[in-house]
Amino acid sequence: MKRIKKIVIIGLLGLFAPLLRAEMDIEITEGIESALPIAIVPFAQQGPAPISISSVVSNDLGHSGYFKPMSEQYMPARPTSPEAIQFEQWKSVGQNYIVIGQAIPAGNQYNVQFQLFDVNNGSQLLGYRMTSSAQDLRRTAHHISDLIFEKLIGKKGVFSGRIAYITSSGQGASATHRLQVADADGFNPQTIATSSEPLMSPSWSPDGRKMAYVSFERKTAAIYVQTLATGQRVKVAEFPGINGAPSWSPDGGKLALTLSKDGSPDIYVLNLINNSLTKITNSTAIDTEPAWSPDGSTIVFTSDRGGKPQLYRVSSQGGSEKRITFSGSYNARASFSPDGKNIAMVHGNGNDYRIAVLDVASGTINVLTGGPTDESPSFAPNGDLILYASQRGSGGYLAAVSLDGKMQQKLVFDSNAVREPAWSP
């Protein structure tokens, strides 16, 4: 009996919305030496709550590598109002900052408030009140983490963001491939597509509402655009040969693609409004992995036209291409920082592949990771972190590194094969 290959498409806000289980643990493998001591005191709550907001905030800040949250068991007190804070008491246990708050039920909502204080001078640095539904309390906690992070570090936090990635289990005829989306801390994992054939190259739309990806469910490669909330999807490319590496334009109206319908793989731009297709490169070499600059004027892509894979730049309207990487025998898989000043990439020499960053203005390359099997870099929305994939034996895992290389995280999943991460806008 012939085995039937199948793909299941799922809406993020549908069947899997109630899931809150974490399938990922974050390990700090290298932190900031000057990590700030901070006490996140348990929030005052009336009755049981779905989550502990203070625990989520503490985990967020601790996993960032920039903070050293105080363990709850060593806290000298549990103040929930400003007048209850004895700052000398917190100084004596080495804390620089303290966060207090409340989460009080009000009908079907929660009234949440928090305050951030500088322990050394007793001044309030931050204070917010917000309303949250029970199911959104975790999102509210991530928002609080973002606010604290930006106030104390001076950079936007990424705790409210989401990540997409591909997982695989089984082999051969029993293999199952999933395109999944989770909160930045690994909670609320949701499967938006499941297939017995490979899924590849997830790419977020600029508004975070859609995902473009490659599916082999029909035995050949095709590119789909799927609306995450409903699961509705549209096939946008299924030409003869290669259909790969979709990349959204900053305005969300176009996709840069790799197609080989005319022979060798080249970069094309597909207008999603009128379905017109523009050929951007025209080479007998392999041109692939397009990435748009944040202003939409430029596409950087990988090509072996010089003999080995290197990064090239071309106008998004087409024209002459210019090589931009010269150090190393292998440079590929470009990802622009949100400000356009840096490009993350896979940088290789021999069989050693690491994540590196190219300074666009100077052309300087800074290698951030230790390799030897690092791939698929993706910048976080704040431009400070780079998410990437690596391998351990026959399995794969995700990791993150700060732009300066000082902070490194390892994201450990239940699945033993995780690849191709993409950070949401």
Automatic annotation (TrEMBL):
UniProt-annotated location(s): Periplasm
GO BP annotations, alphabetical order: cell division; protein import
Pfam (any one): PD40
Gene3D superfamilies: TolB, C-terminal domain, TolB, N-terminal domain
Keyword Nuclease: no
GO CC term, one of those recorded: periplasmic space
Protein keywords: Cell cycle, Cell division, Periplasm, Signal
Name of the protein this chain belongs to: Tol-Pal system protein TolB
Protein's organism: Methylomicrobium album BG8
